[in-house]
Amino acid sequence: MGRQRVKFTFEADLVKEPIIYMLGRDFHLVTNIRRADVGDTLGWVVLELDGEKEEIERGLQWVSSTGVRVDPISGDVLQG
């Protein structure tokens, strides 16, 4: 099992899409939202992903393919 923290940035056309739900369902990952700010035209979400390392990688590649920007994060995202 692995764990990875990432930040997703959504543009206007993707804000209302259930991408995080589909990521958890289709790639058998546990998604834990740590922080988020989502509006009508832009949004970002900081997630912890738990699952098999290969599934995390496959899932993140899929998210990127949808047009969502994916950035890795290190450290405790609740601090600072």
Automatic annotation (TrEMBL):
A Pfam cross-reference name: NIL
All residue ranges annotated as the NIL domain in the record: 2-73
Protein source organism: Geodia barretti
Name used for this protein in its record: NIL domain-containing protein
Lineage: superkingdom: Eukaryota
